[in-house]
Amino acid sequence: MNPILDHPLRHTRRQFFGRAASGVGTAALASLLGENARGAGPAAALPGAPHFAPRAKRVIYLLQAGAPSHLDLFDYKPHLDNRRGQDIPESVRAGVRLSTMTSGYREYPVLPSFKPFQREKSSGMWLSDLIPHTRGIADEICLINSMHTEAVNHAPGVTFFLTGAQIPGRPSMGAWASYGLGSMNRDLPTFVVMLSRDREASCGQLFYDYYWGSGFIPSKHQGVKFRGQGDPVLYLSNPEGVTRKMRRGVIDDLRKMNRHHFEAFGDPEIETRIAQYEMAYRMQASVPELTDLSKEPKHILDMYGPDVQRPGSFARNCLLARRLAERGCRFIQLMHAGWDQHNNIPTQLEIQCRDTDQPSAALVRDLKQRGLLDDTLVIWGGEFGRTPFGQGDITNPNKHGRDHHGAAFSLWMAGGGVKPGLQYGKTDEYAYNVVENPIHVHDFQATVMHLLGINHEKLTFKHQGRRFRLTDVHGHVVRDILA
Hints:
Layout: H1 3-6, H2 13-33, E1 58-65, H3 70-73, H4 90-93, E2 117-119, E3 126-128, H5 132-135, E4 141-148, H6 154-163, H7 173-181, E5 191-197, E6 224-226, H8 244-265, H9 268-291, H10 298-304, H11 314-326, E7 331-337, H12 345-369, E8 376-381, E9 385-386, E10 391-392, E11 400-401, E12 404-405, E13 409-414, E14 422-424, E15 426-427, E16 434-436, E17 439-440, H13 441-451, E18 461-463, E19 466-468
Parallel strand pairs: 1-7, 1-8, 4-14, 4-17, 5-6, 5-7
Antiparallel strand pairs: 2-3, 4-13, 8-13, 9-12, 10-11, 15-16, 18-19
Helix pairs in contact: 2-8, 8-9, 11-12
């Protein structure tokens, strides 16, 4: 036996295909990172994307987890004031899926809006006194009152909105945008996530990592979570005694080892590892500058409200979202908990609106004054709405609320190619069912992708023998709301 000649004959099928793939993979990696793995330009989109001229270059998604009450904020039904406590007819409720908390109720008493609504003069839009700052930007927003979903519980509802399926495991919307369109700034992540919650911690909803995960597409497209305390990203600072030059040397050595491993096996996750080490190194310089608000003018800080100085607050995250948008971040996802008001809506709803209304409106105004709103799509909404009937004893002034409601709810968008000052869709007289221009979750996702220049039917990834997409096999672009 000749070991030199016999060695190639002993290669397994897996080793053969692994080494065969490395030729193409190495070329792709060189294109991504440049000759010295320190490329300066933005990462390219997939071939063929965008599929047409985009209206929006980036998305800022202000996801209000826990489900804001559409009847109390956006869907004006003044005639219900005289029906308080009356039972919503069974003919209205028939066929609507409810959570187990109220599905067995024998009575479904009408619970009108808590606060008066005012009409914005220019657009004619009616909005609650609970959100006066949002009413101040009514000319900029497209208010949709005809959203609907099958989900009636929080985690499946949020997962459905963000990934197109109620079961975890699929790529999130931001990951799809990153995969399809690539990066606009090599020094910052393409997809960033920031979390906040109400100060009273009245809502126990959890934020799971799969809400910004990459599922089965390469993991370099998953969202990077910025923390509210300490370093925005874990291990962003070098340990004591380690200089930036020393860190560069370590990264270069790791790159050489990973490149050797990649050339042997062609595993795409090794590409991700190399790219993420490089991104981490660049972020050590870019993120501290990004999160330093000391140079923001006082009038800008005041516009976002007093909570902007509190690390981890929704207001501060909104300002950071604007700074990320300026620097070319593709998808910015802010998630704020505290809207799950089953037994405290008379007190907690006003607190929650006070924490989120001013910063949300300030973000839209700030983007507009900087010329960024035209190509930035801002989205504000939850995973479903809340029931028009009361939950608990509605005669108790402080201890009652509303249950989950997926059959009809509201969401607004601004900038990025949507019609400003438009109120779209209608619900029935109880705000219980959609009766005009219904928009399903998949329609919403298809429309967001369209505004980014993506044909949602063409942005796919093959996994386990079939091609997956964000909208699964559903979804239609809602062209009526496009500017």
